What does this fold into?
Amino acid sequence: MEFRPILRRLAGNGARIRQFTTDTKLEAAAAAEAVRTTSSPSPPSKPAFRPPSATQIRADALRLKMQKDILPPRPAPFARSSFLNTPRGQPNPSSVPSQNPILSALRADMEKSTSKAQQTSHAQWKTTDFLKKYNMTTVEMRLRPQTGRTIPVQGMVDVARAFKILEGHCSRNKVRADSRMQKYHERPGLKRKRLKSERWQARFRQGFSATISRVMELRGQGW
It folds into this structure.
């Protein structure tokens, strides 16, 4: 029975403590809201409209006048035309021949050569006819090799004899050796060695034949 007044007193103190904490929370929230509203920047105010002054109006008018005086006038619009809407009696400017005499002569020659009325043959496009037509000098050239490779054959010479004569000419002019040497590239060092060997062989052959002839001569004398 003695604990009831103590419990009532403690319950009243707890209620007052809860009310105090609630009041302090509300006051803190209100203070934070007040600080937020005061710290947020206010939206910028729009500048008041000011009518242009007389000086500005005169400057704009002077600038427009200077632009009109400097810039060239705008050309008048032209109508687009093509060869389809060209009048039949009026010639097309692109088809009118130029006044240059050289171009006129070339155009006339081209039209003459390509016209259907004049039936031309391939003979006029030959080199000789072209040179004669334009008075150009002709040059006689023989493009095939002649020395040691061409044998004139008459009517009484048969084919076998002609080939025999050709083979003799080729061997006399060393055509086969030239062809063999020109077939592959020869280094300068190898060429010097080959020429030295050929000279030595020629001297040895000449000396050997001279020695044999001298021996035969001495034997004929009775030695």
User: Anything to note?
Assistant: The longest helix spans residues 3-39. The chain has a mean pLDDT of 70. The chain has seven helices and no strands. The CA atoms of residues 28 and 34 lie 10 Å apart.
